[in-house]
Specification:
With 436 residues, the protein is of the alpha+beta class. Helices cover 21% and strands 28% of the residues. It has 2 domains: 108 residues, 3-layer Sandwich (Rieske Iron-sulfur Protein), CATH 2.102.10; 283 residues, no CATH class. Bound molecules: FE2/S2 (inorganic) cluster and fe (ii) ion (FE2).
């Protein structure tokens, strides 16, 4: 439970807020690279409560500018994309990707007034199919060497989706190991709809011919541990099966708003939850394969069946009860909301309301990872306010992995077992860096 004041402190990320100052110390996902694959590569973007316009110039460089023209405030989302930059249709001022004003054609010939004008802009960088932006002041931190960023482009697939809620409750579902025993429960192990997203989640776990969903269903109250690391939190979930064997799952929180989990033996998912404003966020998921190249066309087509463009808004939402069906809830799924685990998570994050009222919650043992994450976020907010550096910003280029696993192994030696499995997986994917 939090006081109303602390709930505001940890959820509000607009300009001038303490948590907004924390968020502005990190690279933030601003758009999928594919969103600019259009004849006019210009896209309006709302990020951390700021209205911006993203574009790609003919050399492939991205610019993220304030929406309102530095001249007299016209909206640059309607700018002409020409002559290597964005040209405001009002009086023809031309800006490049860095916000420099290159031309002011209505001024007298020879005028140097354009040298005195800058359109506020933020640096951008493209990685893993996503355009990232740095909204802070000063130098951006180096980009971390996480698996999803060092894998070749053929082995990563990125997608996004809109959730109508605050960023924190989105994160708090993703890092919650307890919910998987319930929210994503299927009453049959075999999935009748072959194409359903999350089918991989019902794959056999390492070391046993048992789907991980069944293991989670049969042991609903796991032991939970977390450990602070340079990148965030390492989360260990232990489900004893009998005296000899244990189901172990290692997942991670990447500070401040992402998680990394194993989706199958070969695939991990790294998912960021970036505030659009205080009542909306985008999830950006990067699927990373340690095995064969990913089939991007199929994965994209699957996700586009459940989302509408250009906003990547989900078809299942509050207005249609997230597709709830009482008959299905009685005998097929725990939620009654279909086989798509992303819809289950969406209901869990959106149904508490746009900003969850944490003054009324009751946290137990099963919420200890949430408590650990909040503690870290509050501490980082204080550190940034005091002029310090938050987790994962200093030495980011040295941060690797992080390690994940879903396996059944020996109860008395599970730590060494999962580290051996992790090492073997990395050796089989030579581009992956060994974790420290
Ligand atoms: S308002 Fe943009 S050029 Fe005048
Ligand atoms: Fe989930």
């Amino acid at each position: 439970m939090l006081t109303a004041e602390k709930n505001r402190l940890i959820t509000e990320t607009g300009p001038g807020t303490p948590c907004g100052a924390l968020m502005r110390r990190y690279w933030q996902p601003a758009a999928l690279a594919e969103e600019l694959d259009t004849p006019r590569p210009v896209k309006r973007v709302r990020l951390l409560g700021e209205d911006l316009v993203l574009f790609r110039d003919p050399s492939g460089r991205h610019g993220l500018l304030h929406r309102h023209c530095a001249h007299r405030g016209a909206d640059l989302a309607f700018a002409r994309c020409e002559d290597g930059g964005l040209r405001c249709p009002f009086h023809g001022w031309l800006y490049d990707a860095s916000g420099a004003c290159l031309e002011q054609p209505a001024e007298p010939a020879g005028s140097t007034f354009h040298l005195k004008v800058r359109q506020p802009s933020y640096p951008c960088i493209e990685r893993a199919g996503i355009v990232w932006a740095y909204l802070g002041s000063g130098e951006p931190p180096p980009f971390p060497a996480f698996d999803c960023f060092v894998a070749p482009g053929s082995h990563v697939f990125a997608f996004k989706g809109l959730w109508s809620c605050n960023w924190l409750q989105a994160l708090e579902v993703g890092i919650d190991p307890s919910h998987a025993s319930f929210l994503h429960r299927f009453f049959q192990d075999e999935d009748p709809s072959d194409a359903a997203y999350g089918r991989q989640f019902r794959a056999a776990t390492i070391g046993a011919d048992i789907p991980m969903t069944r293991l989670m269903r049969e042991v609903p109250n796991p032991r939970l541990e977390s450990e602070e690391t340079p990148y965030g939190l390492r989360i260990t979930t232990l489900r004893p099966i009998n005296d000899q064997v244990i189901h172990l799952r290692v997942t991670n929180m990447l500070f401040p708003h992402a998680f990394v989990i194993p989706l199958s033996r070969e695939m991990t998912i790294t998912q960021f939850h970036v505030p659009i404003d205080d009542t909306h966020c985008y999830w950006y998921a990067i699927f990373t394969s340690f095995g064969a190249p990913v089939d991007k066309a199929t994965m994209r087509a699957q996700r586009l069946e459940t989302h509408t463009l250009p906003d990547y808004a989900p078809l299942a939402n509050r207005d249609n009860d997230w597709g709830f069906n009482a008959g299905e809830q009685a005998d097929a799924t725990y939620t009654g909301m279909g086989m798509d685990i992303n819809v289950h998570d969406q209901w869990a994050v959106e149904s508490p309301g746009a900003i969850a009222d944490r003054t009324k919650e009751h946290l137990g043992y099963s919420d200890r990872i949430i408590i650990a994450a909040r503690r870290m976020i509050f501490r980082a907010i204080d550190d940034v306010a005091a002029g310090g550096d938050p987790p994962g910003t200093i030495g980011a280029e040295a941060m690797r992995g992080p390690a994940t696993i879903d396996a059944v192994g020996p109860a008395d030696d599970w730590e060494r077992y999962w580290q051996d499995q992790e090492t073997a997986r990395r050796r089989a994917a030579p581009w992956m860096l060994e974790t420290a």
